[in-house]
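Co-fold these.
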Amino acid sequence: MSGKQKKNLVRILIAAALTGGMHFVPVSGVVRFLIYLGIYLFIGYDILRKAFLGIRNRQPLDENLLMSVATVGAFALALYRGTGDYTEAIAVMLFYQIGEWFQSYAVGKSRRNITELMNIAPDTANIENENGQIEPVDPEDVDVGAVIVVQPGERVPIDGVILSGSSSLDTSALTGESMPRDVREGDEILSGCINQSGVLRVRTTKAFGESTASRVMEMIEDASSRKSRSENFISRFARVYTPAVVYAALALGILPPLILLILGRDAAWGVWIYRALTFLVISCPCALVVSIPLSFFAGIGGAGRQGILIKGSNYLEALSETSTAVFDKTGTLTKGVFQVTDVHPEGMSAEELLLLCAQAERYSVHPIAVSLREACPSDHGEYTVEDVRETAGHGVTARVNGKTVTVGNGRHLKQAGVGSAPDREIETAGTILHAAVDGRYAGYLVISDVIKPNSVQTIRELKRIGLETVMLTGDGKAAADAVAGKLGISHVYSELLPQDKVSRVEKLMAERGDGKGKVAFVGDGLNDAPVLARADVGIAMGAMGSDAAIEAADLVLMDDDPMKLVTAVRIARKCMRIVKENTWGAILIKLACLLLGALGITNMWAAIFADVGVMVLAVLNAIRCLFIGPARPGGK
Amino acid sequence: MRKTYQIEVDCANCANKMENAACGVPGVKEATVNFMALKMKVEFDEGADPAAVMEEVRKQCKRVESDCEIYL
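Predicted complex below.
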């Protein structure tokens, strides 16, 4: 609670106590009037002052003036009628102040909560000076290339490379992923992660402001500057609504009595003016103008906590309307690294074949050789590898433990004099690697890109929540169809160049047309920046630390789990549902109260309850956006 | 040129009013007020002097919302 809030709370309590107490004090006439006037001024002086300033600055139509007119009017009516019932004016002012206080408290509290959640950039960095001493400094002052020390339990302030030390990092602030990541000397390290175990010396590679943590925070704060259609609707609505209600109130206060006068009946000025004042009390659009931006802010903040960065309320809105999710294959649905997925030996065990091939490829730097070596990481026994001859693009021949091992494509084996076996066609999605030992065909290995563990569930969940899925890839048809088949994606477009991907997405967008849902494109941000920019919602995945992807995308999934996309869609939809509930709930309740007020069914007490109550409900509802959980594989 | 300023304002509607007021000041190309982050982002016209423009923005904002503050 800020000082201002405390002061106002005390003021509200005192005024409430005094008003209540006055019920039991038997005074009447002028004394009574003066005491009530005193309480009224005590609780409402700032509103009256602002209303006066508003008039002086020719900006009169705000809620301060509405409240002032309504309460002063109620006071005057009580005098005119001689009832001595001044409580109503004070109560209206009191409730209005309670509403304002609650709004300021709730908004302030959620603002602090959200910014604290997002506050992943520490205030100090421990810099190592020339004497090897450690001194804490403002991270803004740390030069690129300086050496900083991160103690266990501390947050990494600036992006860099580890010079010495090893540790496990908690990256959950950036990725929402709770599994710690092990790092050691030479590894890149991102700001915002928490160092869990060892002391790390880090050479910074970026300035503080350019580091991941600062950029993430800036992005979330900037997000609400890009306003959604709902928010624009509300500001336009508020601009029209308030004056409209004021004129309606004027009309209500003047026209019916005049008509009654003309008809020769009792004008009943008091009744109609009272109804007009009730109108004014209801007219404040606070519930709307507070809760809608709050919903978006909370939604974007809640998503950020789960490693989903949304660059604007408008993208949250677009994501909620997305009907088609277009995926890039490599690096998005698949890991983008090659692995041995199949071994078909002939005349030896699978293990032996794999081992011999890996040894033959021992000195090669080709990606396929790397994946072979990774498939059998441990050196089973001693192997001598000599006479290595590599034919670029074809394969390798080497002597492994005295055996001549030939590994490569069909042509390579033919050239090596192993003719017969590799001739037959093998139907598979990956790259095929044949092998021969001492001139005899020994079988083949299949090396292909592997599907990420959560991809299948992601596609299933997306279909369950009603999204169409499309896959685009530059790979050949066989490989693309195999992956799509496994994932259950119905539409596949293969052998696409980067520019083909753009035109394909454009075509999908044109097919969807207006109002039939938006097209989201999910890519790994490596070479699909143009598509990310062109799609209705461009989503970059696994973008931790990749500036280009963060720049081009509208939404950034900080780690490479495709399930995050389902979470993002859920958050967007739920957030938009809350926004709609608040918008229409508030408008309908207000209109209902206006109608009841005009007919004289409700009084000013009910009106102020409607105004403040709706706002409180709307604010509480908006805060729900912060707590939308992640989508888990397998659904609810 | 774009600059971001810390602001102080009580209600969301007042923030909207400040935004409208700031947009009307000569030299301001676009101004957005982020009520939740309590920040005002101003994009200035080519060749405008931010310091002078912001003085006027502050004055105009005070006119529509007497309780607001812009930390220049």
